[in-house]
Amino acid sequence: MSDPKALSPYDLLGGSPVLRQLVDRFYDIMASDPRAAGIHAMHAADTGLIREKLFEFLSGWLGGPELFVQKYGHPRLRARHLPFAIGEDERDQWLICMYQAMAEIPMDEGLRSHLEEAFFRTADFMRNKE
Fold it and tell me: pLDDT tens digits for 21-34?
């Protein structure tokens, strides 16, 4: 049985304000880092809606409020990404942006390591092309 007082990754990260900072920084890096040009091109010029959706998804994914599920239902993450050709290059571009955004946010090294592994597994699961 798990400890009900144990803090979630969402709490350990710093909750909503820090998660918002992480998501905004992620998309700012995607827009400015030439190594992410491929995945940046997959996004609309106005990233307001997708920033909000990632924030809402990550809130629940990290153990905080299930904002995405409350609005849209089950994330069906892989199905939502099928319209986009995602291979190892695209996965790695996404990870470059997320890892850089994470590097700019103070956090416990254990949490950072846990999140890097979890983000890798999730990003790798999105691959739908060779």
Answer: 999 999 999 999 99
Residue 128: Cβ within 10 Å count: 14
The CATH fold of domain 14-125? Globin-like (1.10.490)
Report yes or no on whether pTM surpasses 0.85: yes
Which residue is it, tokens 């827009």?
31
d(C-alpha 68, C-alpha 95), whole Å? 21
How would DSSP label each residue in 89-100? HHHHHHHHHHHH
Burial of 115 (0-12, 13-18, 19+ CB in 10 A): buried
Find out whether 9 and 62 touch, Cβ atoms under 8 Å: yes
Structure token digits, residue 36: 């992410």
- Backbone phi, psi, residue 109, to 5°: -60, -35
61-95 tens-digit pLDDT: 999 999 999 999 999 999 999 999 999 999 999 99
Report the half-sphere exposure of 33 (CA within 13 A, side-chain side). 19
Task: Map residue 9 onto helix, strand or coil.
Answer: helix
Per domain, the residue ranges of the chain are: 14-125
